[in-house]
Specification:
Two copies of one chain form a homodimer.
Chain A (H helix, E strand, L loop, with lengths): L6 E4 L1 H11 L1 H17 L6 E3 L3 E5 L5 E10 L3 E9 L3 H5 L4 E9 L5 E6 L1 H19 L5 E6 L3 H13 L2 E7 L3 H5 L1 H4 L8 E2 L2 H7 L5 E4 L21 E4 L12 H6 L1 E4 L2 H7 L14 H6 L10 E4 L4 H18 L3 E3 L38
Parallel strand pairs in A: 1-7, 8-9, 8-11, 9-10, 11-12, 12-14, 13-14
Antiparallel strand pairs in A: 1-15, 2-4, 3-4, 4-5, 5-6, 6-7
Helix pairs in contact in A: 1-12, 2-4, 2-12, 4-5, 4-12
Chain lengths: ~375, ~375
């Protein structure tokens, strides 16, 4: 579409089509490579980001709507908007996390893209954990523990499997019916998860080299796991803490670890790190991937993954690139380039109900400009 | 559309169709009535709003992208995203302000509506000035001065004319070619504006009962008008200050007036009020419309209109209400309700390129789910 104000809308079918074309594994691999490369060369002079802000509420029930903005200077602003409503799956059959991403051109301010970001969020969250696991976990095959068997568990396991061979998976969920279906939701070729009671999970911790926590634990109900009997170089991807008051790890465990925040200021508000002082944090995700941190493979590490808006921009850009290549998406005219940018009523001219507008001689009765 | 995750997209044609059906004057009247009623009964326990935040930049040129969030508790979150690029009209033939509004259901977090908000922003900005003019200007017909003859000038004049008879209009613009077309952009039935040089505008101030400033004055280039010779009860709608550093009024004039901020915290950052201390401000727009302020008709008043996110929610809601009545808009599936909310890859199942996914027996080769 030639109008510079046209917007490309990329919906869930467009994302399915892109992933069908590229392949799910290959799409995950591209996302992993992009995250590793872009964050590994992160330059604060070129990428500005703000920590997310939003409305947290208890009416009609516990939830939030929040926005996550990032700008690549001189190029694009990305704003992902996220709804988090933990009762969605049980009460409504809807995902707990729903998201869309909007991209804006920094030259004109126009909205260039609106895209599905629910699946994209799950994919990038998995990809981020995979990258950090690859850098921070002991070399070689992984013995993986998973606490929380919902949608995020699927992408955590899938993404990690793209960088490391997974030897075994032990998984638990407070809801046995959710745990029971985890295996059927995973891509093929992975070990079938051994599902165990939450109460027994802690006994399996000594066998694990990597743990992912990805629960919807209510505020104040953590910890979801006790890591006291861990291996000395356990790596944890803690992805569930995303709300003030909501944390998944035991504070003693957290204090014993090197905590790697994805976004320092955000983690101090709503990550596992919200219970820590700034000087208790380890190097950031950016520090680690840029090579600005000491080697941590021998250490007990916790990746505090609250979700970084820059990851969302990278994911949306990858989606759009493939969609354009495939000619997917629908062009919409939320705005249209005017003949006279100073005339707000231009699109109304010639309409019968706005006959009071001078119309440069065009008095055609047009009720519907569609 | 029956999917609870479907989104109604309302574009520029839908807004034209709504206004064609309702009538431009009647639509403005409804918007004015809604703003007066909703702000006049504003209750901070029922409506939460955040001041806008965004990215201000000088690369590739001076501009910003910002977001303006409001929540009606237990009902809806509205986020308007605005681009402001003052070089757009001259360099690209595009409006300086471009905006879209997104509405979210606070029960599920789903995106229910995306709508055009460029014209809607101009309309609500005019409507807000009209309401404040009606309450704060001397009773009777208005002698109106307008500084800046772009898109905002049109809706300022139009909206005020819906509540007050306009006796005369004197207008000026730093660009004579923009001033020259103002008359042709106004609805009929209004006095033809007398266009004068910027240098001569100050001489006409003694004749004016209401002044609207709506310029794209660069940072540091104000004041755009000198009000020293004003009538003692002049009312000013200052709508152009919307950027840190950008102000339109002379500081002595501002200090001599009762300043009515639309959003106190926002005005202190980017309104005319950014040069004032908090204790120099008068009652807020909400105070005035709720009747919590003393009568100000005899006073020199300045409405510091930076634009309130709640006004945007009201405008978007009115637009959506009429669009639904008329069956306008396009339903889109940015998300789709899953069969299993815990299965992020559900929409990919059965696709050839994701054959590695277990598919509950459905191995049909479907490359495109559209």
């Amino acid at each position: 579409m030639s109008d510079p104000l046209a917007t490309l809308m990329l919906d869930v079918d467009d994302l399915s089509a892109v992933i069908a074309d590229v392949g799910l594994d290959a799409f995950m691999d591209e996302l992993i490579a992009e995250l590793r490369s872009e964050i590994g060369s992160f330059d604060a002079a070129c990428v500005e980001h703000q920590i997310r802000s939003g409305f947290n509420y208890e009416t009609p029930e516990h939830g939030l709507v929040e926005w996550m903005p990032t700008m690549v200077v001189g190029d694009v602003v990305s704003v992902k908007t996220v709804g988090y409503h933990p009762a969605n799956p049980q009460r409504r059959g809807l995902p707990s996390v729903l998201a869309t991403t909007a991209l804006y051109d920094t030259t004109t301010g126009s909205l260039t893209t609106i895209c599905e970001a629910t699946l994209l969020t799950a994919l990038r969250t998995g990809a981020a954990s995979a990258v950090m696991t690859d850098v921070l976990a002991a070399p070689g095959p992984v013995t993986l523990g998973v606490v929380g068997c919902g949608a995020q568990a699927v992408t955590q396991i899938h993404a990690i499997s793209r960088l490391r061979s997974i030897e075994s998976i032990v998984a638990t969920d407070i809801d046995p019916s959710v745990a029971a279906t985890l295996s059927s939701r995973l891509p093929e070729g992975l070990p079938v998860p051994v599902i165990i009671d939450s109460a027994d999970f802690n006994d399996r911790v000594p066998d694990l080299s990597v743990v992912c926590t990805c629960t919807s634990v209510p505020i104040g109900d953590g910890a979801v796991v006790d890591l006291a009997n861990r291996q000395p170089n356990l790596h944890v991807n803690a992805v569930g803490a995303d709300f003030p008051g909501k944390t998944e790890l035991d504070l003693d465990d957290l204090r014993a670890s090197v905590v790697i925040p994805d976004v320092v200021e955000q983690c101090l508000i709503e990550g596992e790190s919200q219970r820590l002082d700034r000087d208790e944090l380890g190097p950031s995700m950016t520090d680690v991937l840029r090579g600005d941190a000491p080697p941590l493979v021998e250490s007990f590490t916790v990746f505090d993954s609250t979700g970084w808006s820059f990851e969302d921009l990278i994911a949306a850009r990858l989606f759009r690139m493939h969609a354009e290549r495939l000619g997917r998406g629908t062009w919409v005219s939320l705005q249209r380039t005017p003949v006279d940018p100073y005339d707000p009523y231009e699109t109304l001219r010639g309409s019968s109900a706005t006959a009071g507008l001078r119309s440069s001689g065009n008095l055609a009765l047009v009720r519907d400009h569609g």
